[in-house]
Amino acid sequence: MNDKLIIFDTTLRDGEQSPGASMTRDEKLRIAKALERLKVDVIEAGFPAASLGDFQAVEAIARTIKDSTVCGLARALDKDIDRVGEALKAADRSRIHTFIATSAIHMKMKLQMQPEQVIEYAVRAVKRAREYTNDVEFSPEDAGRSDEDFLCRILEAVIDAGATTLNIPDTVGYSVPEQFGKTIGNLISRISNADKAIFSVHCHNDLGLAVANSLAAVIHGARQIECTINGLGERAGNASLEEVVMAVRTRKDVFPCQTSVDTREIVNCSKLVSSITGFPVQPNKAIVGANAFAHEAGIHQDGVLKSRETYEIMRAQDVGWSANRMVLGKHSGRNAFKARMNELGEEFETEESLNAAFFLFKQLADKKHEIFDEDLQALISEVSAEAEQEGVQLVALRVCSETGEVPEAKVTLSVAGDEVTSIATGGGAVDASLRAIESIVQTNASLQLYSVNNITSGTDAQGEVTVRLEKDGRIVNGQGADTDIVIASAKAYLNAVNKISAVQAREHPQVAGDV
Ligand code: KIV
Ligand code: ZN
After folding, report:
1. Residues 152-187: pLDDT tens digits?
2. b/e map of 141-156 (b: 16 or more CB within 10 Å)?
3. 20 to 30 A Cα–Cα from 450, which one of 4, 93, 336, 372?
4. How far does the centroid of ligand 1 lie from the alpha carbon of residue 114, in Å?
5. Does the CB atom of residue 10 touch ligand 1 within 6 A?
6. Strands 418-425 and 463-471
7. Could you tell me if residue 417 is left (phi over 0), alpha (psi between -120 and 50 degrees) or otherwise beta?
8. Measured in angstroms, how far is the CA atom of residue 358 from the centroid of ligand 2?
9. Which helix (H) or strand (E) holds 214?
10. Separation CA 163–CA 197 (nearest Å)
11. Contact (CB, 8 A) for 216 and 180
12. What pLDDT, in 10s, does the model give residues 267-295?
């Protein structure tokens, strides 16, 4: 009987720390539900002490999720731990994850604490967390650069204090697989009470080694991996969930353990996270990239046609790629629409929200006769964005673009209930439209990224536009989808504008801040 490998997903916490990936409460809830369908064991839902928005998102997820443990992050401070305890009150299964830095550089420069003091903080934090739940995780931040003897001392002390999971983070992505694996093995064999806790790893991808380091740790005894969908996360990201899970499943000969993940949900989850955060998945990304199962070379195609195993080590359908993804069309009724949406995890709370979504679906079906799951997901994003955006909405857009003439756009927006119109010219239809919008909303934000991806194939496909805006050091991504990319661009820009206002309202301090 193989050991269980616990999959701890931190897309909603570390993933959200990617610049521009901040999500609203409803977006986080949608992702949490998708993670539950994926059957991850633990969902790290956020960092409640960071902001009211984070607190409320964790609280909502704790109330909703039934099959996965819901976890909240806390610095080793009473006030942070109490905040997590409060946010997780309604959870069926809750975990508190507390951390403090243990590397010499972090203790001296950041915490300005002596090692003994750091141990005291850690022990006190774990004891406090145990007052709320029996499931307490402790992380020595920057463990990848910490002294092994010191790690042994602090980890032994927190196990005695009641920690049930010891997570070893390679916070700055400095480790390499052989050395990191050995460190995990050493900690497990040297810590006298190691058998009372599960060892976990949390690897960052600064050297592109997050997945390799995590897997090396599993070979040396780690039984929890912290990871994110699409490898989203601080800086270069975290270990990617889909890669870790499929490596363990595909190489059963190497890894003496198994996960409970329903791998057929992987692609859906990846697309959802990409569409909500606006971080596209690169085509050659393992498992979830558009080309992950595509064969270009004739010799490969020939081999695969004769026997799939010649060039494929996994089956595309096992990770959720399906050959026939056309799901609905112009003649599909409300019931078929609702049923497919439910299968995608979207439950409509009211008849009005179902009707609003069905109305948008019919509009789309008039322009595009085959509607795919990806179109439906974009449509859900649009419905939620409209529900949340009380600020500025697109009412009308007309563009005039002709060879030899300067493109011009006329835009009408609804700003807090009032309609305002503006006309602007630009280098192209998109440029003119965004200038017209900016002349009304006047964010003075700088445009850092503009990208268009087709959601499905064909010239009638919806274009999904991502716009990244930066204002006063805050970065937000906005998305918009439409069969007309000028309209998609306007929607994306407005989505970002509305997010800027929302983010301003719920400040997000750095996780690696004081203590
Ligand atoms: O990278 C890190 O050290 C973290 C900890 C909070 C676990 O994200
Ligand atoms: Zn991290």
Report:
1. 999 999 999 999 999 999 999 999 999 999 999 999
2. bbbbbbeeebbbbbbb
3. 372
4. 20
5. no
6. unpaired
7. left
8. 40
9. helix 210-219
10. 7
11. yes
12. 999 999 998 888 889 889 999 998 898 76
